[in-house]
Amino acid sequence: MKILLIGSTGMIGSRIAAEARSRGHEVTGATRRGTDGVVLDIADESRVADLAKDKDAVVVAVTPPRDGTPPAPYLLAVGRALLGGVRAAGAGRLVVVGGAGSLEVAPGLRLVDTPDFPDVYKSEALAHAELLDLIRADAADVDWTYVSPAAEIEPGERTGHYRRGGDELIVDADGNSRISAEDFALALVDELETVQSHRGRITFAY
Question: Out of 54, 75, 90, 201, which could bridge 146 as a Cys pair, Cβ 3.0 to 4.6 Å?
């Protein structure tokens, strides 16, 4: 499989790159500085289209800049450029790594809207939720999948185990929602290979 991986040097992206390459997939990494392959301004639709040509999948694992840039306008601009670029290139699939904040903890209640959700993460979580809304509204002609991690994701062990869900937050027997970045990457590459989700959101956790 030929994969364009945008954000291939981040905590999650680097592990997706390693997992995919270990399985023999051809991964073209794209970052702001070109550290893992090619340089890409992700809001540049024509550049996205050029890089996505002949790719079986475009995987996006980016976060807003930590320089005071408002996250919602940034991620919405990114979303529009991605959709336009993937359409123009005729790429096979678009897989976007999003946030956990928009997952439901009860019917109609998102994690980000609960009283204990940390304020420091709220603006970015809401921005990722807006990106999901944009994709759901505007990407009917694109084979997309939005992938939310567990509420807690960090470097750890590759156990080979995970659970899969849809729009609801997955928690363990103690009420915790977590996954290692290694197992999240494993699950995402499994999805790339098995293609179980079309035009919907999925989540992975223990």
Answer: 201
SS3 75: helix
Q: Which domain holds residue 76?
A: 2-205
Report strand pairing: 104-106 vs 109-110.
Answer: antiparallel
Give the other-Cβ count within 10 Å of 182's Cβ: 20
- Tell me the C-alpha distance between 206 and 196, whole Å: 19
pTM above 0.85, yes or no: yes
Give per-residue pLDDT as tens, 171-206.
Answer: 999 999 999 999 999 999 999 999 999 999 999 999
Q: Specify the long-range contacts of residues 70-76, CB closer than 8 Å, at least 24 apart.
A: 70/123, 70/127, 71/123, 71/124, 71/126, 71/127, 72/123, 72/126, 72/127, 72/130, 74/43, 74/127, 75/127, 75/128, 75/130, 75/131, 76/127, 76/130, 76/131, 76/134
CATH of the domain at 83: 3.40.50.720
Could you tell me which residues are beta bridge partners of residue 39? 31
What distance lies between CA 62 and its chain's CA centroid?
7
Q: Rounded to whole angstroms, how far apart are CA atoms 5 and 205? A: 22
- Tally the domains of the chain: 1
Token pair 């946030």: residue: 99
Of the candidates 13, 14, 8, 142, the one whose C-alpha atom is nearest the C-alpha of residue 80 is 142
